[in-house]
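SEQUENCE, STRUCTURE TOKENS:
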Amino acid sequence: MPTPFGRRCGDMRSSSLILCFLAAGTIALGLLTGCASAAGTGQEEPAPSSTSALTSPSPTGSFDSMGYQPDAAWECGYVSALETAALHAQGLLSRGSIDQAAFEQRQLALQQAWSVAPQGRSDVTPLIRVADTLATSGQSIDSDAFRQAVGAIGAACETAHAPIVLGTLGSLGG
């Protein structure tokens, strides 16, 4: 069987021969699967209309990421993710799984993530802007001012019925 490289499968060593047959089998299976799905039920799928792409919430449809305004639940979920990552870093440092330098790198990455936190127009948004300003100005996420800002965000998230939720790694007792 000729290959794209001009060699024949029979001219190769046994391991190459096996790989050649696996590749040929994969290609054949892909072709058969494509034909089977095209034949399917015998019914044609409707062609997408030109307007369906504009209104689709699907990630493959048109989505204006610059115009998206996250709600309080989304903002609080983002804060939950950042606070969980901070908890994990502290736990790993405490257990000796990472050293101080690795911990500080994670803290810096979290500080940067806070400085780009998506902001909407909810009651939580002004408080996220405070944390963003602190992070952008170089304030450590362990500083008292930053912890107070995160505490205020947590209270606002509770009020918005979107509490901050922290998850722990199994290795840290979670």
Observations:
- The chain has two domains: 1-34, 72-172.
- The chain has a mean pLDDT of 75.
- The CA atoms of residues 100 and 171 lie 19 Å apart.
